[in-house]
Amino acid sequence: MQTIELIYPHSYDSEDLPETVAAIGFFDGIHKGHQKVIKTAVDYAQANDLTSAVITFYPHPSVVLRDDVREVKYITPPAEKQNILQKMGIDKLYIIRFNKELSLLPPQVFIDHFIAGLNVKHLVAGFDFSYGHKGKGNMCTIDDHSKGRFATTTVPKVEFDGEKVSSTKIRQLLKNGDIHKVNQLLGRCLTISGRVVEGNKRGHTLGYPTANLDVDPEALLPKPGIYAVKVVYQHQVYEAMASLGFNPTFENNRNKPVLEVNILDFSDNLYGEKLRLEWHAFIREEQKFSDVQALIQEMANDEKKVRHYFAHHSEQM
Predict the structure, then answer these.
(1) Tens digit of pLDDT for each residue in 244-276?
(2) Parallel/antiparallel/unpaired status of strands 20-24 and 92-97
(3) pLDDT, position 96
(4) Cα Rg for the chain, rounded, in angstroms?
């Protein structure tokens, strides 16, 4: 997959680009609804021997359009999004830089420049996709703006349990720690990658050595707590328990959560190694314990619960 970053105005000439079928959207999370849009484009491209593409944006429009939003955390930060799209068989990924200038473009100019201008012959989008200044362009107006230069497919909303699958819903579920439902809406396990960095080595003294993961600061993490996770390391998959939180038993003033992973039945040194973590289930809330012995006892309970969970949930998302 070729990744191309674009800023308005880009300098590409449509005549130099292959005829393309493109799926367009922000696609944070690449959940089941997004997957339907993207797969529609890929299938059409393959059936008609055309190039498949995803057109997406960065950063999130709210960072540019709202004074009260300084940063946004992403269900799938850019690197994770690229990784998933590559696995979906996309030929080209266009990432349009969302800035003030782009937000002011009239809908027609946006279509001329970023759709017709990229030699898109068929555009696929969700029913609620909008474009141009104040979102005045949408899937009802797009045929007028296309001027016959490309065809369109509008993908209807995808539901799960009678409710629309959306990034907003997934964000809410992550806040509640409902990993099971998150994974159902994603159609796969929520994943995050990080490098193992040096921690305080407290886990060793407690009998539960942990790998401290330095993860993408833009990644949206679930609520603090203990989780059943799987760790992918050098193409091997290991069961593990993860602690995401502020270590309240030992610290009072930490302002950023720490992600520590205890890989079951594993003792290699992982410092500096890159791990991929799959979130499977929420085990319990983070707690402050009165003494170290109580914490060790609870960690033993956590391990039992995690082992029990994986013994009875062997499915792969």
Answers:
(1) 988 755 566 667 889 999 999 998 889 999 999
(2) unpaired
(3) 98
(4) 22
Quote the tokens at residue 28: 């944070």
Enter the tokens of residue 154: 């509008």
- The pTM assigned to this predicted structure is 0.91
Whole-angstrom distance, CA of residue 185 vs CA of residue 162: 12
Which residues, at least 6 apart from 8, have a Cβ–Cβ distance to it below 8 Å?
Answer: 96, 97, 99, 101, 102, 105, 113
- Closest to 123 (Cα-Cα) out of 57, 52, 46: 52
Question: Distance between CA 25 and CA 218 in Å, rounded?
Answer: 19
Specify the residue for token string 């995401």: 244
- Can you tell me the distance from the alpha carbon of 173 to that of 316, in angstroms, rounded to the nearest whole number? 20
Contacts of 188 (CB under 8 A, 6+ apart): 317
Segment 114-138 mean pLDDT: 97
Give how far Cα 144 sits from Cα of 138, 150, 159, 189, 213, Å.
10, 11, 29, 40, 50
| 27: its two tokens | 């696609």
Contacts of residue 296, defined as CB under 8 A and 6 or more positions apart, other chains included, come to 206, 207, 208
Work out the widest C-alpha separation in the chain, in whole angstroms: 72
- What is the dihedral angle through the alpha carbons of 103, 105, 96, 148, rounded to the nearest 10 degrees? 140
Q: Name the DSSP letter for residue 74.
A: B
